[in-house]
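User: Structure tokens for both sequences below?

Assistant:
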Amino acid sequence: MTKKIVITGIGATSPLGGTASESWSALLAGESGARPLDYDWVAETQLPVTFAAQARVSPSEILARHETKRLDPSSQFALIAGREAWADAGSPEVDPDRLAVDWSTGIGGVWTLLDAWDTLRERGPRRVLPMTVPMLMPNGPGAAIGMDLHARAGIRTVVSACASSTEALVNAYDRLQAGHADIIIAGGSEAAIHPLPIAAFASMQALSKRNDDPARASRPYDINRDGFVLGEGAAALVVETEEHARARGARIYAELLGGAVTSDAYHITAPDPEGSAAARAMITAIRNAGAELGDVSHINAHATSTPVGDIAEYNALRRVFGDLLDGIPVSATKASTGHLLGGAGAIEALFTVLALSDRVAPPTINLTDQDPSIPLDVVTSPRALPSGDLLAISNSFGFGGHNAVVAFRSV
């Protein structure tokens, strides 16, 4: 028998705020998290891009000093978001053998890895920290949450580029359906605002170069979009069976209806311009939710603000919904947060859950001249969603041709 799976806790640290509620409020207010980078290494390395969407609150303001010393920033963000989500869920009493983690990252501990390489070259092998390997491991963020909450039903890490944390949510749904756990903390984190990733993304012409106007650099669907803005942070969702949630009197934000994962098998960085596999992920996610295409009330799009990516996603959306697409409000929240890479799907899923819970679609900022080849109904100011039963999907697509879609229903 299919179980109802629900969201009972949320947590985030993002370019918009240090908590989920702060991030949501700033998103609805139309704020941008993109700011100039105030570091010596920006000038020293002569970076062509001098801004990013850094986390609004430094982990050092929240975590104990020993935690910041022994965790890569990607794990620090994860721990902050995971703890907030757990507290928001009421810090449930659960058998540790029935508590699991499904986490994700796109790049992992890049700061630890590259700092250790600098130390090795400049100061020798004896000065490389013994915690270097545990800190740089991609599974480090999930492990940090799992050890903090004593989760013993399994800690899994998905690494599928920018689709990672949406895929983690799909995995959490499947694991709960299979009865492998009662509660799962699912989400993703990223901390890659470092000169090497910035230089590499800029080299492939993926980043916006609007150094003189960072706040308006991320502009999904705009005819003048020129690339994404690198972001950082984490988001976590507490996911459990409805039966378990009701039994403990938990507040329920929304129902998780599952999702789908496909792959383009087309190109390592470019999306399939026809969007056939991305379309199949959306169709499968909606079908798995037991819904029809006409039931979809809201879409949180992947929409990175790249010239190629935005139109490829539009082609996939049109392939799926046809004329129905014209009546579905679409939000592109990376305009405000920047692109959190492996953490993007989690923060956008969190925003989708809150959109259903509060019945308001968040705005897409910086859209001043919509690309006529992408005729979507883009939400540009907070828009009320209708009463009644609402269904929404959140899309994530990543390098390597990864496609992941997750579906939620209002409660």
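Moving on to the next sequence.
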Amino acid sequence: MSGTRVLLADDHALVRAGLGKLLETIPGITVVGEAGDGLALLALAEELKPHLVLMDIAMPGLNGLEATARLVKSMPDIRVMILSMHQSEEYVRRALRHGAVAYLLKDSAPMELELAVTAVLRGETYLSPAVSKGVLADYVHRLREDDQPSEQLSPRQREVLQLIAEGMSTKEIARRLDLSIKTVETHRTGLMRQLDVHEVTGLVRYALKLGLLTI
């Protein structure tokens, strides 16, 4: 693990601070940066070129699953570990499908963090014992199924969908994504048509179903 550069992404500063302290007790690990949301994480990863990213799922603007998918597509050598409070197989399956190589529960013992990091840097996949039972079998089975309609959404559509579900106005979304108001309205209309929903509450329910939004 000599010279391993690590980037942290979590919307809670105290969580990032605690993780940073734990990681730097592992020989060869250096925490090179922190981000509080998925968009900031992508920008920092481009700048800092980490070897490993530890990512929360529930972050504003761009959640950890979407950020993971974009990160491994643009920088395939980066290994992504998801750290989450969510124990359900659905979250784990989505994390793996989006390109994560590890899923660690936030209530894990500090020793498990080192085990997970060591395994990931050896090129292995790591799942917390509490979530591992049945997950890999379920994952393989589902990959053989036809793509669901949700997988047909573009990255930009999923990003707009999350921001709508978070309660942002069209103007706020346009400012956040550096788009015109007309473009955001076009995305909103297209999402409703493609997902066959007719009101914002329907989009919120769909975002929850996809794991773009947590409650």
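User: Anything stand out in the second?

Assistant: The beta strands are 4-9, 29-35, 52-56, 79-84, 102-105, 126-127.
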